[in-house]
Amino acid sequence: MQTGFIKQFILICQFEIKRGFTTQKGLLLVLTFLVVWSVILLYPIRLAAELVMQEKGWMQGFSFLEFFGLGAIHQWPIPEFGVLWQLALILFPMLSITLAADQTCSDRERGTLRFIVLRCSRDSIFFGRFAGVMIIQAILIAVATMSTFALVSSRQVELIFSALPNMLVIAINLILAVLPFTAMMAVLSAKVKSARQASVWAILIWTFLAGIFSGFAEYLPLLRYFKILIPGYQLSDLAQLSGWQTLQLAYVPILQSCILLLLGRWIMIRQAL
Q1: What pTM value is reported for the model?
Q2: Running DSSP on this structure, what letter comes out for residue 32?
Q3: Distance of CA 114 to the CA centre of its chain
């Protein structure tokens, strides 16, 4: 039973990865990401990094980046990774909502999910699709961090060895950051009829919960403890950290993902196909 689940899980995961890189929709999303990231890499990251280096020779009491609320970039020893850190914490969770929206909903709407369930368990389908989407996102995160590493190396070859730890810690944190967003989309995909509905509901639910917990926490202090259940709750605090200190909040996305995946599995088992 356990061996059968693992085999099914691997097959579903491989199918999801293949679908992400070979279908027209998947290729369009990947191509769009590559184009957008190329622009981000060559302009915001490169130009902001040059500004950081120039500021080191200016007045110590003033910083344009601090004026715009981006002073945390100075905490990173290599400015390119500081800019990457700030931008990626916004970009990749947003990308996750789009990329992970269609895990099971379209197959259920077309009726093909009934055919797949005849050969695979619902658990292997649910967790296999989730793992496949996470691997796709991990590849895109690797592309983003490695391209930034290449940019740093082209600027100053001597920074290669000191840049490797920065690249690694950012990649790990970004994978953890998108975990709960991908799990949230797995839950919604198991319930709604289309990827578009899943994306819309994700934005509505996320903004509604964030507004409720933030707006009423002053009157009901107990709500502050439930804010930890909102995907991305820790991102604003995470943006103020640097280096390996960022992993001190790793428990937040892991806890959120576990709760959401359990909820999604419960829905998947009981949802009509």
Answers
A1: 0.90
A2: H
A3: 30
Q: How far apart are CA 197 and CA 60, in angstroms?
A: 50
CA dihedral 126, 127, 128, 131 (to 10 degrees): 130
Residue 156: what residue type?
Q
CA distance 136 to 256: 20
Q: How far apart are CA 61 and CA 70, in angstroms?
A: 15
How long, in residues, is the chain?
273
Q: What is the pLDDT of residues 190-217, one digit of tens each?
A: 888 888 888 888 888 888 877 777 777 6
Identity of residue 115: F
Return the closest-CA partner of residue 269 out of 114, 116, 121, 115. 121
Nearest Cα to Cα of residue 16 among 173, 189, 256: 189
- d(CA 177, CA 257) in angstroms, rounded, equals 10
The residue among 148, 128, 156 whose CA lies nearest residue 84 is 148
User: Rounded to an integer, what distance in angstroms lies between the CA atom of residue 116 and that of residue 249?
Assistant: 38
DSSP state of 227: G
